[in-house]
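Severity: low
Component: inverse-folding endpoint
Summary: output formatting inconsistent between runs
Steps to reproduce: submit the following structure tokens with default settings.
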């Protein structure tokens, strides 16, 4: 879909004021322009968000659902913006982050760019690897992981939950039999991880769905997503990656949904390092806000 935070910001104003004129005054926007933006948002979401009448704009059920998610994004973004300057002001030197490639491709670049904007002397390195990082060997200063390690002198902090769903390209769906329930999945080509290269049980999504055969498999999330975008088949994707996949949509959302978590892993000795602690604080706040923002757009 083609929606962004600016669309959601305008939507919030219209929903709260229940009129284009009232929202236009707050936003200093012409009501006609605002009306066109709401039409564009409805088209992007393929949903009717408002019931229009002489009395104003009333939210539909779809609008109420979007309102709750948009308000959560708004709160998270305000919190992140408020936290980042105090947490990161004056950081310098090099910080290396290890992460699985889903997080490394779709979350860390924009979060770290925001931190770097406030700290021009800071060098951030993102190492995307489909395996667990060894902080004891100093492969990275900190790592994002999909499960909490139970051994080693490590400090573990839960960052946030995130959601995953089955996705497919519009082109694939148009060219293949319909997918209305779980049984239909057996007739479709599946994209996923190479089974014997899954480095964390939390990534074994397809087993949870009873799909044993993976005709198109890679240890890279990016390769899987490109296969799906090109119409190769159906697969599991993070909701936060869906806005970056034009022409791809979630399927069977009322029947299949997975929830996983990201954890920030640091070496225990680094707790006494104020520079790394300030960066970790900013990184955690930024990741939470970005997951909420992107999931609201999925």
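Observed output (run 2 of 3):
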């Amino acid at each position: 879909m083609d929606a962004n935070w600016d669309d959601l910001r305008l939507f919030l104003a219209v929903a709260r004021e229940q009129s284009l004129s009232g929202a236009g005054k707050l936003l200093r926007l012409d009501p006609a322009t605002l009306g066109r933006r709401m039409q564009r948002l409805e088209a992007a979401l393929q949903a009717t968000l408002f019931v229009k009448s002489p009395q104003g704009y009333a939210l539909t059920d779809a609008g109420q659902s979007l309102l709750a998610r948009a308000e959560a994004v708004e709160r998270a973004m305000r919190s992140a913006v408020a936290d980042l300057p105090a947490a990161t002001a004056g950081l310098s030197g090099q910080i290396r982050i290890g992460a699985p490639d889903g997080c490394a491709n779709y979350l860390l670049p924009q979060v770290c760019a925001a931190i770097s904007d406030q700290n021009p002397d800071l060098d951030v390195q993102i190492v995307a690897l489909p395996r667990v990082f060894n902080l004891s060997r100093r492969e990275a200063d900190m790592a994002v992981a999909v499960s909490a390690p139970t051994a080693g002198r490590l400090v573990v902090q839960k960052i946030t939950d995130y959601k995953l769903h089955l996705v497919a390209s519009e082109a694939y769906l148009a060219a293949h039999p319909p997918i209305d329930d779980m049984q239909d999945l057996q007739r479709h080509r599946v994209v996923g991880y190479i089974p014997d290269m899954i480095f964390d049980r939390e990534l074994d999504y397809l087993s949870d769905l009873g799909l044993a055969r993976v005709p198109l498999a890679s240890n890279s999330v990016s390769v899987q997503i490109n296969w799906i975008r090109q119409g190769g088949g159906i697969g599991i994707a993070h909701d936060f990656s869906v806005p970056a996949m034009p022409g791809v949509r979630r399927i069977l959302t009322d029947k299949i949904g997975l929830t996983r978590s990201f954890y920030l892993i640091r070496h225990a000795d680094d707790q006494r390092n104020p520079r790394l602690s300030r960066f970790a604080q900013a990184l955690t706040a930024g990741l939470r806000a970005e997951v909420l923002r992107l999931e609201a757009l999925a």
